[in-house]
């Protein structure tokens, strides 16, 4: 069955989050998958989809406008908001009158505002000596952020109370698949490991990997084998 919503998924990338969202919401979508080149970069056909040249990318018909138009949208949080608001009646996106609104707002922005930039710094400094200032800053920030996440998950089932939200949806990629590029041992963080185990048991998460990936398995363990040597 054809849908107006198309999800362009670059395998082993954070566009898995958008596939997972559609599965969680029960949204009809057309899935188009692309493999990375030997350089690990996206193929040119994927780069051509968005000015950012990165995943994720979705296509849809903008029915919010008087004259509907075909759109392409990038950026993970933008794609999540678009799909959640248009197709999910706002599910998974907390409102100011919801319980834990302040906490949700913080964790919703924390992943892309703090955690992923630190991991990107780690990737960029991987070839430097461990005592290099840049490498030390990256390691220090990552350790601090993981401690914050672990402490939070020691207080509730999910990041925001006991309800799964879009904050969890965004958080899981850097704790799992991103470790294909940036090895990270989570053995010291028991609450994060409990959280990832429960995420892995969600039927929608399992369907995501069945539909969108050919080789990648969910990287939910403390120290899974790295897929790539960077």
From TrEMBL:
<protein>
    <submittedName>
        <fullName>Glutathione S-transferase-like protein</fullName>
    </submittedName>
</protein>
<dbReference type="InterPro" id="IPR010987">
    <property type="entry name" value="Glutathione-S-Trfase_C-like"/>
</dbReference>
<dbReference type="InterPro" id="IPR040079">
    <property type="entry name" value="Glutathione_S-Trfase"/>
</dbReference>
<keyword id="KW-0808">Transferase</keyword>
<dbReference type="GO" id="GO:0016740">
    <property type="term" value="F:transferase activity"/>
</dbReference>
<dbReference type="Pfam" id="PF13409">
    <property type="entry name" value="GST_N_2"/>
</dbReference>
<comment type="similarity">
    <text>Belongs to the GST superfamily.</text>
</comment>
<feature type="domain" description="GST N-terminal">
    <location>
        <begin position="2"/>
        <end position="91"/>
    </location>
</feature>
<dbReference type="InterPro" id="IPR004046">
    <property type="entry name" value="GST_C"/>
</dbReference>
<dbReference type="InterPro" id="IPR036282">
    <property type="entry name" value="Glutathione-S-Trfase_C_sf"/>
</dbReference>
<feature type="domain" description="GST C-terminal">
    <location>
        <begin position="97"/>
        <end position="219"/>
    </location>
</feature>
<dbReference type="InterPro" id="IPR036249">
    <property type="entry name" value="Thioredoxin-like_sf"/>
</dbReference>
<dbReference type="InterPro" id="IPR004045">
    <property type="entry name" value="Glutathione_S-Trfase_N"/>
</dbReference>
<dbReference type="Pfam" id="PF00043">
    <property type="entry name" value="GST_C"/>
</dbReference>
């Amino acid at each position: 069955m054809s849908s107006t919503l198309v999800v362009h998924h670059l395998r082993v990338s954070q566009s898995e989050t958008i596939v997972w969202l559609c599965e969680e919401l029960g949204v009809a979508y057309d899935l188009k998958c692309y493999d990375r080149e030997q350089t690990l970069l996206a193929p040119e056909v994927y780069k051509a989809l968005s000015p950012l040249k990165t995943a994720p990318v979705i296509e849809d018909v903008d029915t919010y406008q008087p004259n509907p138009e075909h759109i392409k949208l990038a950026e993970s949080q933008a794609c999540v908001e678009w799909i959640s608001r248009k197709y999910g009646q706002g599910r998974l996106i907390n409102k100011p009158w919801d319980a834990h609104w302040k906490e949700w707002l913080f964790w919703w922005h924390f992943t892309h505002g703090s955690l992923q930039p630190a991991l990107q710094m780690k990737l960029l400094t991987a070839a430097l000596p461990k005592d290099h200032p840049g490498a030390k800053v990256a390691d220090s920030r990552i350790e601090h952020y993981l401690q914050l996440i672990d402490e939070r998950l020691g207080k509730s089932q999910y990041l925001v109370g006991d309800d799964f939200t879009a904050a969890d949806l965004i958080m899981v990629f850097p704790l799992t698949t991103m470790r294909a590029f940036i090895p990270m041992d989570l053995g010291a963080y028991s609450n994060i490991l409990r959280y990832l185990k429960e995420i892995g048991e969600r039927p929608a998460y399992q369907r995501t990997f069945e539909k969108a990936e050919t080789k990648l398995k969910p990287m939910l363990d403390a120290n899974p084998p790295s897929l790539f040597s960077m």
